[in-house]
């Protein structure tokens, strides 16, 4: 007599391999971000050395040098141009990546997206709560509650490239997803909590070029007969106009980058049955602008934002006597892993989700500790919270740098050991017996 089929629904496996095409695409992104991370670290180190050298006055004079057009509220210091202008390119890539992931990536499936998205939310909420607890009762310093909430993907991937060359691609995808989602949350935080005054006429005017940008991005070939690679020649000036008007409205101008990124179409390939993105405008823009973001925009921002006069041991003592610094270090080094691992464990405990059998919880813990590297967005939020010339901002910079270094060292200790383990089994995973160009392990598992 045949056994009755089980009525228990199958468990949802998270941190599995995903599709081979997605693994290749993520690998390409991470290789580019690795180079960007190295440049970011070099730019930050150069700023720190210069800001603490006998020629420190030159660094601060350069950072505060003003240039621009006053009537459009664009007479800004070079440091502000880097934060408001160049970072818009970085957030444009964030918008593209978010849309790509949720429209055509593996995360378009709710059962694959829910765990990393929930983990990213936990990795934002717990650090914010820790910072708020440390700074409770101080209206002046509690404004920085969002500083320890973001992960710097370029910095984290640069560390991962050195220590984790043999770690499973699922872990790297998980780290990238965490960083992208908490970047989105950080964008929402900036838009909602760090917009002090909105100039409605400028905001309404900004909607016009944004609408034109979205329309032309969707219809560029029909109206202009352009190749996709040439579309940016028309879209870029419109995007700059939208950025300028949004900046004049009082909303942080980097939001324009995200909004414009969301308007770029993501085309699915019919040949692959839908899951994989074809060579549409989103993919072409990503290839063109990611080197600009990783190689220019983020390192230049880091150079102008990371420079802080530490002032020797007395300066460090003053920084870490400030609850701002204590809250940031505790939030990034402790809050990030607790929030990410804790939320993931709760998802596994109270839902049908379970960790893929090829991975261990220590792998997830190592990645969660690595996610405590907060840099680009943390520095931006610190400036928005306290202002460029505030002592709290300087203390926040010291704390962000210290916490990022601590997170990198701790994660290295965990992930190096795991990397040795996965190095031993990597050769088996790359076997391609049928010589179709896809490792058999991706074909044997039910995706």
Draw up the topology in text.
Blueprint: E1 12-14, H1 20-51, H2 56-63, E2 66-69, E3 74-77, H3 78-103, H4 110-134, H5 153-163, H6 169-193, H7 200-224, H8 232-249, H9 254-263, H10 281-306, H11 312-320, H12 323-350, E4 353-355, H13 361-370, H14 376-386, H15 391-429, H16 440-444
Helix pairs in contact: 1-5, 1-6, 1-10, 3-6, 3-9, 3-10, 4-6, 4-12, 5-15, 6-13, 7-8, 7-9, 8-9, 11-15, 12-13, 12-15, 13-15, 14-15
Explain what the structure shows.
The structure is a single chain. The chain is mostly helical and 447 residues long. The chain has a single domain, classed as Na+/H+ antiporter like domain (Na+/H+ antiporter like fold, Up-down Bundle), CATH 1.20.1530.10. The chain has 16 helices and 4 strands. The strands form 2 sheets. Strands 1-4 form a two-stranded parallel sheet. The protein has a two-stranded antiparallel ribbon with strand order 2-3. A hairpin with a 4-residue loop joins strand 2 and strand 3. The radius of gyration is 23 Å and the shape is globular.
